[in-house]
């Protein structure tokens, strides 16, 4: 659908990448990877048609549509959520008007055997088939499902978009993009503004989508679950691997090992040739052999080794002073915004040295409780910060709070004190701001670079309680791994608000679940928590009541009595339900596909040309038979699911 031929991009005299040649086909799910600044976002802009390459050609198949979600965009705020989402179907309304036009033309003609009439019938059939594939007039239900999958409730639909944060407005833009069903989806960090539930919903949506997908993401679990192909920008080249990201990591290591071995052999060969030339350069009897070796040396093509980022990015928090035994204690903490209760009866005790996670849907109060702990907003109840606690706080918008007029060096120079001032260049180099990069203005930095710079500022302050609100947004995978290791070695207390499952795994020992106005404690890591909830992923949280009745919740265990299933039985039942739901979904997809095929065949059979085509009749009969079988299979799958009920 998209074909790049020898594409190169340069900024001034500096090449970003060159000689990029690849093809994007239907059903391709491509992860575009590379270190920050390698050119991933630039390549997406070229594919989207928003930027021209310095040289080379991008060939786009005729009539294909491309949808592009950039990291940052200007969002209009004049409409409600539902009105903004409906803009995704402007083209459907145009198609409806076109079909009405064609239908009127057909009704007003009687020259059924003419070439013009047959062309009109064919055009109507083609447009009608496209119209049905785009959802036809029944798009409202799909629109609501998509908005809810991305975290909006029905009560949000009629709210003005200006009432939502930038992250939520980006979700609306993502919903519009998905609803348009483009042939190629280009997504630049789509998970940055999503919670874990919405990320998993998006994973499932993309798995079912008929669009080709090219995405940039630093969420390792997300790209592993979505993609089947990995393209890496490295050493100014694009290397294409037809495998998932995890497999790519393994193959890349093998590739580099082979390159290194070949490089070492080549260097030995070059050294031997040079040694021969030097030894016999002045011996007339060896003149022919020497000239032969010189020509041989000139013909050798140097072997290049894939770029590996060896910058010393070692993140180490300074030693911290001892705080009280329980740095944070909440007793009956409650927070209301007007008539809306964000959470109530919050009782938690975080021990010194513990690393805990705050998880749950966006809007359920994770960041709000963090602000209560920081003393930024009022609340009711008792919240005690122990004696000697020194808090280091990394907010979601920390990178945006940097002074854009300063350079990278000046930003750190203003907060550094004592002996640290003598090591600023070394610290910046450790965070990949070495050399000229330290003199860059903050305003020209990418999102990932700003996040690293904000993290450096946090590291320069000795603290014993770290509160990190979505610290991994915009960080590349290598930087996230280093940050994770540093937090693991940190001897203070850590509260992590994060939607990154891979980042939380093996790091936290306790999970606090926010939902329904309550905060519930779960001992163990992130996947222990999922297992306790009988879930494969956090996106199943939204299947539970959002605002449970506290009284009903207290009486439920008593009513269940002896009839309650054991944990293993619940786990097995949940597995069987998921399997049954998957079977129903597959049957529904088969029925929909066959219904669309049947409708298309009926449209062709309604034409004089189609009515005379015996092969078309045979295909129609076969499709009808397949449809009946699919409908029977769907009914049986529904029965099986209801029995598990």
Set out the fold topology.
Layout: E1 2-11, E2 14-24, E3 29-33, H1 40-48, E4 55-60, E5 66-69, H2 81-86, H3 90-107, H4 115-133, H5 140-149, H6 166-179, E6 184-188, H7 196-208, E7 212-216, H8 220-226, E8 229-234, E9 237-241, H9 245-280, H10 287-299, E10 328-337, E11 340-350, E12 355-360, H11 366-374, E13 380-385, E14 391-394, H12 408-413, H13 424-430, H14 447-459, E15 465-469, H15 477-489, E16 493-497, H16 501-504, E17 510-515, E18 518-523, H17 526-532, H18 550-560, H19 567-605, H20 608-611, H21 614-644
Parallel strand pairs: 3-7, 3-8, 5-6, 6-7, 12-16, 12-17, 14-15, 15-16
Antiparallel strand pairs: 1-2, 1-4, 8-9, 10-11, 10-13, 17-18
Helix pairs in contact: 3-4, 4-19, 5-6, 9-10, 19-21
Care to describe what's here?
- The longest helix is centred in the last third of the chain and has 39 residues, at 567-605.
- It contains 21 helices and 18 strands.
- The two termini are 44 Å apart.
- The protein is an alpha/beta fold and 645 residues long.
- It is 45% helix and 18% strand.
- The relative contact order is 0.09.
Entry summary:
45% of the residues lie in helices and 18% in strands. It is α/β, with parallel strands linked by helices and 645 residues long.
């Amino acid at each position: 659908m998209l074909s790049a031929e020898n594409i190169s991009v340069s900024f001034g005299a500096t090449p970003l990448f060159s000689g990029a040649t690849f093809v994007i086909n239907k059903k391709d799910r491509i992860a575009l990877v590379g270190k920050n600044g390698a050119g991933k976002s630039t390549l997406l802009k070229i594919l989207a048609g928003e930027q021209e390459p310095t040289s080379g050609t991008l060939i786009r198949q005729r009539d294909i549509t491309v949808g592009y979600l950039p990291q940052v965009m200007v969002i209009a705020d004049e409409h409600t959520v539902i009105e903004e989402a409906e803009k995704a179907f402007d083209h459907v309304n145009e198609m409806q008007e076109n079909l009405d036009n064609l239908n009127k033309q057909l009704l007003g003609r009687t020259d059924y055997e003419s070439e013009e009439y047959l062309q009109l019938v064919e055009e109507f059939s083609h447009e009608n088939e496209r119209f049905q594939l785009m959802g036809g007039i029944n798009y409202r239900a799909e629109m609501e499902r998509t908005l809810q999958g991305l975290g909006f409730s029905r009560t949000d639909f009629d709210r003005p978009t200006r009432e939502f944060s930038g992250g939520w407005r980006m979700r609306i833009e993502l919903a519009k993009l998905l609803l348009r069903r483009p042939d190629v989806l280009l997504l630049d960090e789509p998970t940055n503004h999503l919670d874990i539930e919405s990320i998993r919903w998006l994973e499932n949506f993309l798995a079912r989508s008929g669009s080709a997908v090219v995405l940039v993401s630093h969420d390792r679990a997300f790209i592993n679950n979505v993609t089947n192909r990995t393209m890496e920008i490295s050493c100014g080249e694009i290397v294409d691997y037809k495998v998932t990201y995890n497999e790519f990591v393994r193959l890349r290591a093998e590739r580099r090992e082979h390159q290194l071995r070949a490089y070492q052999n080549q260097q030995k060969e070059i050294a031997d040739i040079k040694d021969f030339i030097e030894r016999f350069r002045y011996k007339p009897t060896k003149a022919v052999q020497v000239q032969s070796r010189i020509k041989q040396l000139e013909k050798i093509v140097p072997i290049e080794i894939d770029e590996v980022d060896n910058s010393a990015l070692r993140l180490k928090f300074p030693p911290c002073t001892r705080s009280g035994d329980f740095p944070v204690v909440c007793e009956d903490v409650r927070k209301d915004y007007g008539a809306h209760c964000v959470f109530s009866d919050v009782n938690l005790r975080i021990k010194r040295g513990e690393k805990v996670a705050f998880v749950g849907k966006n809007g359920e109060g994770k960041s709000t409780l963090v602000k209560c702990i920081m003393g930024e907003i009022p609340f009711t109840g008792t919240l005690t910060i122990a004696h000697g606690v020194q808090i280091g706080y990394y907010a979601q918008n920390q990178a945006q709070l940097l002074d854009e007029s300063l350079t990278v060096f000046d930003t750190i120079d203003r907060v550094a004190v004592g002996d640290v001032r003598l090591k600023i260049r070394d610290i910046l180099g450790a965070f990949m701001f070495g050399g000229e990069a330290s003199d860059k203005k903050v305003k020209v930095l990418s999102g990932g670079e700003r996040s690293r710079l904000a993290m450096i500022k946090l590291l320069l302050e000795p603290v014993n309680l770290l509160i990190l609100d979505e610290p991994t947004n915009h960080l590349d995978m290598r930087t996230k791994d280093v940050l994770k290791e540093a937090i693991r070695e940190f001897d203070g207390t850590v509260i992590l608000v994060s939607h990154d499952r891979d980042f939380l795994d093996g790091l936290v020992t306790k999970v606090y679940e926010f939902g329904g106005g309550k905060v519930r404690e779960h001992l163990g890591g992130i996947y222990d928590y999922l297992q306790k909830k009988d879930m494969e992923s956090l996106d199943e949280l939204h299947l539970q009541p959002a605002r449970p009745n506290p009284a009903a919740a207290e009486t439920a265990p008593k009513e269940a009595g002896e009839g309650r299933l054991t944990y293993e039985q619940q786990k097995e039942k949940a597995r069987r339900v998921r399997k049954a739901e998957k079977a129903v979904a597959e049957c529904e997809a088969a029925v929909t596909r066959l219904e669309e095929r049947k409708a298309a065949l009926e449209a062709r059979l309604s034409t004089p040309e189609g009515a005379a085509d015996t092969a078309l009749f045979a295909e129609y009969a076969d499709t009808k038979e397949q449809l009946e079988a699919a409908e029977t299979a769907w009914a049986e799958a529904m029965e099986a699911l209801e029995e598990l009920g």
